[in-house]
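User: Just a sanity check before I run the rest of the batch. Below are the structure tokens for the first item. I only need the designed sequence back.
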């Protein structure tokens, strides 16, 4: 193979590869729901389809460091609570206990009730609470 033809062929292969990478990147940006924990898409911290998720009292869903828990029947915002799972003491991730419906920090033992209020220190303040909205049976935590 001549040197000139080799360089020419290499250029064509490179162009095809770059075009493929370009279109792959485009298809990703068109995906409205890249986060499986957020079926509503957008900038929501978490969302859930209430037709199939969070259907029973005490059920929960986590996305990253955000949890939403169903506390009552009915698909209205007041039937849910959305909290940060980050302990206000030193930032460990708290765990949710669906039996006691409370949160406990594994690092130094702080405990929080279902509304995020401190029930046992050393945590100095409540877990961060987030707003919930429900539209067309899709719950969104903002
Ligand atoms: S970090 Fe949670 S109790 Fe210390």
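Assistant: Here's the designed sequence for the first item:
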């Amino acid at each position: 193979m001549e040197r000139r033809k080799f360089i020419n062929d290499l250029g064509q292969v490179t162009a095809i590869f770059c075009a493929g990478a370009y279109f792959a990147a485009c298809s990703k940006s068109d995906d409205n729901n890249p986060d499986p924990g957020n079926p509503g898409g957008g900038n929501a911290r978490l969302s859930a389809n209430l037709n199939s998720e969070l259907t029973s009292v005490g059920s929960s869903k986590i996305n990253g460091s955000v949890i939403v828990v169903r506390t009552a029947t009915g698909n209205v915002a007041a039937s849910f609570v959305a909290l940060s799972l980050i302990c206000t003491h030193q930032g460990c991730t708290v765990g949710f206990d669906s039996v006691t419906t409370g949160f406990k920090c594994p690092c130094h033992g702080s405990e929080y009730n279902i509304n995020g209020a401190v029930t046992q220190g050393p945590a100095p303040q409540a877990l961060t609470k987030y707003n919930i909205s429900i539209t067309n049976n899709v719950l969104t935590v903002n």
